[in-house]
Amino acid sequence: MIQDRVAGTVSPPGVLFAMLGVAALLTPFMTLAANRIVAGEGVMAWAVAAPALVAPGLLAVAAGLLLGVPAGKPWLRLFGSVLGLSGLLWLLMQGAPALLDGEGGYARVSPAIGFWLLLVILSLLLADTLTALAPGPWMRLGFLAVASAVLGVVLWSGALADLSVMQEFSSRRDAFLREALRHLGLAFGSLATATVIGFPLGILCHRRAGLRGAILPVLSFLQTIPSLAMFGLMIPILGWVGDAVPGAQDLGIAGIGFAPAFLALVLYSLLPVVGNTAAGLAAAPPAALEAARGMGMTPLQRLLRVELPLGLPIILTGLRIVLVQNIGLAVIAGLIGGGGFGTFVFQGLNQTATDLILLGALPTVALALAAAIVMDALVDLTRRTPKGTP
Amino acid sequence: MIEIDGITKTYGAMTAVDAVSMTVETGTITVIVGTSGSGKTTLLRMINRLEEPSAGEVRINGEATHSLKPHILRRRIGYAIQGHGLFPHHTVGRNIGAVPELLNWPKDKIRARVDELLELFSMDPDAFRDRYPAELSGGQQQRVGVARALASRPDLLLMDEPFGALDPIIRTRAQEDLRRIQQRLGSTIMLVTHDMEEAIRLGDRVAVMDGGKLVQHGTPAEIIAAPATEFVADMVGDVERPLRLLSLIPAGEVVEEGTANGEALPASASLRDALSACLWTGREAVPIERDGAAAGRVTLAAIRARAEAHG
To answer: Which InterPro entries match (chain B) (predicted)?
Structure first.
């Protein structure tokens, strides 16, 4: 009985998050290193700055974890997770200048295991709460806009400028901007190209079962090639094209660089685009199609008025898979000189400079997350029939 | 007038429809009835060329159907199918206006036509116009499906088992609605069913198909009174033939002078209803009223005389 009552008033994941959060607070929150290469030493959360500066942050994190415990109060839990995340930010902002004070020009300060664990735990709390709230597509886009704006203001204000990863950024400001554009170009450009090729192919596959049986296995096979191998394979192939075809090199086609990376991403994108286009077009109820034919719609009218609108959510889901997948895969382009955030990741790996790796990895993760949220909202917005209909 | 002239459909060595000829008068309902595999649906689908005939031709008001492009032909022929086939992503209004939209009617004309049809099917336009098919009951979906098929005032309405997915009570109501609306609009309808009861209730003419051949084509009374083959007799159901026949005759036809006890029946009730009322209450006769006024009576003897007068 008592157990039942307790279970009704507390959220089991909330309790788990609180316990994990307290444990995470007992691990080093930040590290201080003499320079950007050597390993640093951990500093506990309560020691990163003067007690009066640390106290509000610690309190906010603890209160946030605690507010996550009650069940059935999603808005309270949402507030808790935001409060906790603000506490983390506060601790970083106070800790970075305080720790660097008097440590000399080469010293570096970074978030440590405790910070990352708490970030994950509070994000899970946030996700758990948002799932319970089940916000509509517009609201989710609103949350994303607010979160991006807050992140943008914090980064722009220079409040985190003392962190090592931001120092890596400030010494590469121009390169970062260039590689960011290159990364977006790779991800969105390959998506656009794959859509232009794959969409008509998907329609053909839908119309002709024989073609479908021939094309989809080939695309599935492409998908099974490991990404490193695929990028590697592009080098000899495009290298040969660059040498053999007159004018190809003037267009930038060569064994390394943008072209092979772009082509590899396009090849990976074809299966989701073609497969989901064919599946989406097949989703229209057979009776509706029979009626459309019987009332005198031409094949094109059936496609535009019945099959496409009914299949659009599934087709967009395919594009969502491609976009998120390519934002991640484009990192590997850095390995064959294709540019993008991968450039920093692989430079960082070569120099064992963790913060340089993060400079490439963090924006990639953020970009993929934002793309997933936007595309999911679009998929929901294109479901124009009321809930519960096929 | 619809003329079907020696129309045949073969799939390889198999003949689905074998040289069927018949004429459908404008403003009547012809019900094509048969078992599964009798070729009835194929016959219907050859009229709007969802199946291309292997031989023979169909003429609508003298014009051969193969002289038009198939999609142009189909826009002139209403088509309603089992399971309604409504577009789930369009509102009721847009579903009904689908063919007028294909024919590029002006928007206000489409809107007026949609409201007119909803009224005709006893559905309040303001309440139903903007709903989606999934928000309707099965009977309402079916009515919208028929309304859509009638929207452009087609020369001909083809219906393939339109009531097949409905439960018996809603089905009877849908049949009555169709009859009422057909008489009001004067539509020409060809309807396919496997249910002889439905054929007799709805048809001005009944065409019985068996093994791809048209085995009998006539009025319901002719089919019941003189089945051309054993198969037709089986379809009609030998034992029930007198009752089926009586169900076709309105009481008003055999009403005679005199009075009777008990509750009166309207003159439009069938002799089958009158017989049933007599047997159930142990009366020899039932009073008949026309427009609320007493019009005489129908006696058991008169009913028996009509049942014996076939052939």
So the answer is: AAA+_ATPase (IPR003593), ABC_transporter-like_ATP-bd (IPR003439), ABC_transporter-like_CS (IPR017871), P-loop_NTPase (IPR027417)
